Amino acid sequence: MDHIVTLNAGSSSLKFGLFARQGDAPVPICTGLVDRIGGAEASVSLRGPDGGKLSEEVSDMIPDHESAQDRVLTLLQRQFPAARIAAVGHRVVHGGPDNDRPIILTPDGLRALEQLEPFAPLHQPYNLAGARAAMGRFPEATQVVCFDTAFHRHHPWVNDTFALPTEYYDIGVRRYGFHGLSYQYIAGHLAQTAPELHSGRVIVAHLGNGASMCAMRAGQSVGSTMGFSALDGLPMGTRCGQLDPGVMLYLMEQKGMGAAEISDLLYRKSGLLGLSGLSSDMRTLEQSDTTEARRAIEYFTFRARRELGSLAAVLGGLDAVVFTGGIGENSARVRAQICADMAWLGIELDAQSNDASARVVSTAASGVQVMVIPTNEELVIARAAAEMSA
Ligand code: ADP
Questions:
Q1: In 3-state terms, the chain is what percent helix, strand and coil (to 5)?
Q2: Which of 155, 175, 209, 221 has the fewest other C-beta atoms within 10 Å?
Q3: Which residues of the chain have pLDDT under 70?
Q4: 115 lies in a domain?
Q5: Considering the entire predicted model, what is its pTM?
């Protein structure tokens, strides 16, 4: 039987999945993570489709993505000796203004995606390093690339632009939007399980280490909180979210900070970590009783409430809210704080089902259905890889 590998390469990590191809429908076999690539000590873990741990090893240094893929391949061959890799699906953060769907990767296509590296310098080079390594490692397999920006490509022009002179739009300074694979999964899931909501007005809150919200009408993105980069919108684990651009001018002109220093501040030292001075991890903050930790959560949920109201205005009303991502799926406190006093919008949370992170966490009388749906970006990639390599 043919198999599909999914790869999601970050700066120092490589998430992967193995799927069996049965017709067009990939069946998950395992997922895994190579962590701390380039660090003194790396780790490689493997989980079954139910999330149960299959193996975990701490290893010597794994210097780069090529070596990480070697480790993954060795591990998969050892655990699943009959697997024959027919396709590799890659998550790539940026597809530019034109890519509105997955593509089959060729050497020319890879060069075109390299041109987009300046648009996402902290993500795109690592994604492409992973793709490059896989082309060498699995030369017989079809390489399929799925873009985080693709889902938003048909959003309205007003949500695609900034109020800058139009020549900046023409050179690519646009609101691209990200987390598209997660939104695509949720849209597909709603189409299957709640078609009446799928055809209506839905806001999806993807709240993980990265966080954004997307307004969907009939399963299509019409607006999102992330824009040109993965910095805008909601505050995140270590990223600032919405920021007055005047702050950056002040830091440059008055505080003498350079681009690298500001980038480090906005991407790595801000968000929940910056506000709490403690951690970027929501679980740690929820367990802490410091004022700063409480305030970090308060700011996170306050900004989410503002964006929820703003996106409801974009949609002209609201039929459903979906929470997903590590925080959205698991934190009853965050969901409750975001939905508090939202009766004016038709949102009424049911405390008991919210505490249990049930599939529906709103009351029967709530005008807006509030749902918790675990996302599955790997499955979206695997489906695209199965379809395009058939
Ligand atoms: P990524 O964006 O890296 O994929 P995840 O979607 O896994 O991240 O989300 C990670 C976030 O989810 C962390 O802030 C973590 O603390 C939070 N999280 C996971 N489980 C819980 C939980 N039970 N309660 C609160 N927060 C949680």
A1: 40, 25, 35
A2: 209
A3: none
A4: yes
A5: 0.95
